[in-house]
Amino acid sequence: MSECVKTGDWVLLYHDEKHRYTVKVEEGRVYHTTHGSVNLTEVVGKRYGETVRTNIGEDLVVSRANLLDRLGSLRRFTQVIYPKDAAYIVVSANIGPGSRVVEAGTGTGFLTAILAWYVRPSGRVYTYEIRKDFYEAALENLKEVGLLPYVEAKNKDIRKGIDESDVDAVVLDMPDPWNVAEEAYNALTHGGILAVFVPTVTQLERVIVAVRKSGFKVIEPVEVNVRKYKPVPGELRPETLGVLHTGYLLTARKL
Amino acid sequence: MSECVKTGDWVLLYHDEKHRYTVKVEEGRVYHTTHGSVNLTEVVGKRYGETVRTNIGEDLVVSRANLLDRLGSLRRFTQVIYPKDAAYIVVSANIGPGSRVVEAGTGTGFLTAILAWYVRPSGRVYTYEIRKDFYEAALENLKEVGLLPYVEAKNKDIRKGIDESDVDAVVLDMPDPWNVAEEAYNALTHGGILAVFVPTVTQLERVIVAVRKSGFKVIEPVEVNVRKYKPVPGELRPETLGVLHTGYLLTARKL
Amino acid sequence: MSECVKTGDWVLLYHDEKHRYTVKVEEGRVYHTTHGSVNLTEVVGKRYGETVRTNIGEDLVVSRANLLDRLGSLRRFTQVIYPKDAAYIVVSANIGPGSRVVEAGTGTGFLTAILAWYVRPSGRVYTYEIRKDFYEAALENLKEVGLLPYVEAKNKDIRKGIDESDVDAVVLDMPDPWNVAEEAYNALTHGGILAVFVPTVTQLERVIVAVRKSGFKVIEPVEVNVRKYKPVPGELRPETLGVLHTGYLLTARKL
Amino acid sequence: MSECVKTGDWVLLYHDEKHRYTVKVEEGRVYHTTHGSVNLTEVVGKRYGETVRTNIGEDLVVSRANLLDRLGSLRRFTQVIYPKDAAYIVVSANIGPGSRVVEAGTGTGFLTAILAWYVRPSGRVYTYEIRKDFYEAALENLKEVGLLPYVEAKNKDIRKGIDESDVDAVVLDMPDPWNVAEEAYNALTHGGILAVFVPTVTQLERVIVAVRKSGFKVIEPVEVNVRKYKPVPGELRPETLGVLHTGYLLTARKL
Questions:
Q1: Counting one residue from B and one from D, how many pairs have CB atoms under 8 Å apart?
Q2: pLDDT beyond 50 at A1
Q3: C238: β partners
């Protein structure tokens, strides 16, 4: 209910549609915005919905920051999967509370974080990353957003083997997922789901060949397209310019 | 691990790509398929991945049935939201373990079940349905798939008021969601998200007007289109015919 | 104007949105519709916009039939290109009055007829078809719709050579267009355009390789998607089901 | 065949994929490119496919410029319809050699030019424009690309009446096309087609109401989406960013 902001909470400070800021509250820290700076100590104890004033007299509304807000505030993420694709993976691969999921590559942990958030509190994400710098950035990012307890991160080449067995889902976002099809099949429980993301149709074709060969069934390659509309009553229309393509998604099952 | 099938488990019996059956295992029940009938008592004690033989000698592989398998096996569901749209709602409205979500209308409980599955074990879905027959069908369906413990279903008109407060999300799939915009705003926590599904662009325009008037920010109307590909290597192409449109989704936040 | 219908004219007889009939007026011929039969002799001399009565007393409005009406009335066409794709080819390949165009394969002449209609009166379509039955059906179809004078049809394998030179455009709708890339390049005038239609992305990739190797520039592969809306004010929305994919189009230029 | 460039011809000078120039050859004129300048007198007499050297020693291949090249080279065009939409209009409104077409508004003449090119040599485009500056720019543009002989341009408000009758098509690209629906119906021949372009779905809904009221049949609102692919073999995929929406097209017939 009328809960108050505590140190360590993530908050969203809202000024207007184009200026909102997501920040983790730490006492003593000063946070700079284009509408002046905020002493985060002043945010502690505020009720959600109350405002905090910047040093130049602008009021910012204090709201709860959600998962995507938090992930968006981390500078370290590079080349991440879009929420539209992550959403399709989560639901079509049946990833939810308690799921045990293998993922590769970790990258800097964006999709890992989303998966971890959904398998809480009893599930686990086992994530493989071959590059040490990415692995370390991911550890830091996951810790920052509070999701590390649900993740087992490994600085390992998944093509050399998957340590886990009887997992509910395997999620692959890596350049050559066809090289992991057989390992993924063996790691999955019966009924479990493989989900693959690849940017090009050339890769998609190779993945289809590999998963079929490895014994997967119900192979479903798709494209997910989200088109935003301008929310202007009386002039409703889709945005003129935007994202036309991110990649292809393929799900397949061990049956 | 090498867990065995128990009474009450949901299993998926796989014969081939076009013939797979989802069923809840009850001792003594005989289940009929186009490849013969199965005495479900024989399924109990099987390890996942083993086969069961029908009375005409066909083998079916026994696998775990997931949430969408279970929902798909329920005959009562009519006119339900597509998984692509449910996925977008779940992720863009930040609905996960522990979330408290208000939903209307319940319909026969398809989306309710998905939401309930994601808020487990500590969250709750408070769902409103004005029609008594739908409300009762939904109760039965939710019980059948084991998700009733996470749902508080009400045979009530949401337009007359929302009982809950400080909820994380409000999800509306009803003919006139604009009549609930203000109630939804009041029921949400600061930072909480409203998600609305409507089939026509005429409705979408009315929703935009109403949510803006009620004080919502970051209003984002979208369309989610999923295009399936035929998984035939050497002849890769999208399906020729299929679903061109289900509806429009709008998210907005209380900030 | 108030021009009158003459023998040999194509007319469109309109009863209602779902029942309209395109027919070539021949004296003495009786034309059967689901609303009764019409003696076409009675249509001769009608002004456009007047009605003709069937033998069961239903009135049909007499209108001019256009090119697509005529093509749609020919039973002999099989597996034809969609108007959306034909439109893109015509405009992006700069095919208009006076253009000299090479086409393969003719099929039963649907696209040939569209191209011929646009190059009238001084242009020509040189069309190649390897199958004799298709070639003969195309000749008959083109004659029926009055476009044969603008077409030079050949029962020949285009892969063995193109007889024409300095043509403005080459249009390929055949299984292995990559085998004609070099011939097409040689046949085109400088600045001329190649347009290729293929159903699968696997074919598209082979075409791209071939046209690049043959020296083509400004290679542009696209997909054209047309989504129909239900024209119901107050309930405006796209059609639920429909065509998701026909094929890929590629244009390239000799520069 | 081996025709030579003459004064007044439009040529396309090609350096590489990102640098090609369309210019009308005038003796004595010096044309500047990012690869040096060309004395156009030197282009006269060249055969197509030969090169011309710039003052800094770069070679440009001389090719024929087509209609879209020419239109693209005119600086005066503003806010023009996309070729994808123009293509759909031309083919679905059955506009070809000999067609008599009414258009409004002219704007600076881009769509007028395309229509005029297709109705050559015996057809006519009657185009209405309320703004004098646009009307004058259009006259100049049409003259420059050589299509003025096929156009009758008027500095008139089409909402006050259409002078022509029994026309084959009426094409409307103006803010309030619903105000012309009845005039359009009266101006069309029986069987003739109305084609309307509007950017917003709000306008589309008003157009549907108006054309239905005016007696039009076979009302078909659509969206035409063209998605470009990157022509890279081995990495085939759609462009990441691009045009998501231009507008809605509606065709309707007088039957």
A1: 5
A2: no
A3: C229
CA distance to A91, A108, A115, A186, A187, per residue, from A169 (Å): 11, 20, 11, 11, 9
Cα separation, B10 vs D183, in Å, equals 65
**Fold classified for B71-253:** Rossmann fold (3.40.50)
The pLDDT-based confidence of B76 (bands split at 50, 70, 90) is: low
**DSSP string of D22-33, one letter each residue:** EEE--TT-EEEE
Q: Which residue has the tokens 């479903």?
A: A220
> What pLDDT sits at residue B152?
98
DSSP state letters, C64-104: E--HHHHHHH-TT--SPPPHHHHHHHHHHTT--TT-EEEEE
- Is-contact D89 D171, C-beta < 8 A? yes
With cut-offs at 50, 70 and 90, classify the pLDDT of residue C1.
very low
Cα B187 from Cα B162, distance rounded (Å): 7
CB pair distance less than 8 Å for D202 and A227: no
User: CA of D238: how far to CAs of B228, B233, C209, in Å?
Assistant: 16, 19, 16
Residue C190 neighbours by CB distance under 10 Å = 20
For D172-191, write each residue's pLDDT tens digit.
999 999 999 999 999 999 99
Is C58 annotated to bind a ligand? Reply is no
Report whether pLDDT(B221) > 60.
yes
Q: Which of A61, A62, A213, A226 to mutate to test the interface with B (most CBs of B within 10 A)?
A: A226
The answer to whether the beta carbons of residues D11 and D52 sit under 8 Å apart is: no
Residue B232, judged by CB atoms within 10 A of its CB (0-12, 13-18, 19+), counts as middle
Q: Is D200 on the interface with C (CB under 8 A)?
A: no
Q: Is C56 on the interface with B (CB under 8 A)?
A: no
Return d(Cα B22, Cα D68) in angstroms, integer: 57
Q: In the CATH hierarchy, which fold is given to the domain comprising D72-253? A: Rossmann fold (3.40.50)
Report the pLDDT averaged over residues B180-199.
97
pLDDT tens track for C194-235? 999 999 999 999 999 999 999 999 999 999 999 999 999 889
How large a percentage of chain D has pLDDT more than 90?
Answer: 94
Chain B residues touching C199 at Cβ < 8 A: 237
Name the CATH architecture for the domain at D10-65: Roll (3.10)
Cβ of residue B59 closer than 8 Å to a chain A Cβ: no
Say whether residue C202 is in contact with chain A using an 8 A CB cutoff: yes
Q: Given an 8 Å threshold on Cβ–Cβ distance, is B240 in contact with C243?
A: yes
Q: B147: which chain A residues are within 8 Å (Cβ-Cβ)?
A: none
More confidently predicted of A14 and D78: A14
Task: Report the distance separating Cα C184 and Cα C179, nearest Å.
Answer: 10
D136/D76 Cα distance (integer angstroms) = 11
- Distance (Å) from the alpha carbon of B214 to chain D's nearest alpha carbon: 22
Is A231 within 8 Å of chain D by CB? no
The SS3 assignment for C250 reads strand
Cβ atoms of C107 and C79 within 8 Å: the answer is yes
- Domain locations in chain D as residue ranges: 10-65, 72-253
Are the Cβ atoms of D200 and A237 closer than 8 angstroms? yes
User: Measured between CA atoms, how close is A201 to chain C, in angstroms?
Assistant: 8
Between CA B73 and CA B141 the distance in angstroms is: 10
H/E stretch holding C225 = strand C217-230
B173-192 mean pLDDT: 97
A159-167, long-range: CB < 8 A, 24+ apart = A159/A183, A162/A102, A162/A128, A162/A186, A162/A187, A163/A126, A164/A100, A164/A102, A164/A126, A165/B1, A166/A100, A166/B1, A166/B2, A167/A100, A167/A101, A167/A102, A167/A126, A167/A192
Distance from CA of B205 to the nearest CA of D (A): 9
Q: Across the interface, do A200 and D244 touch by the CB < 8 Å criterion? A: no
Tokens of D104: 């409004």
DSSP structural state of residue B135:
H
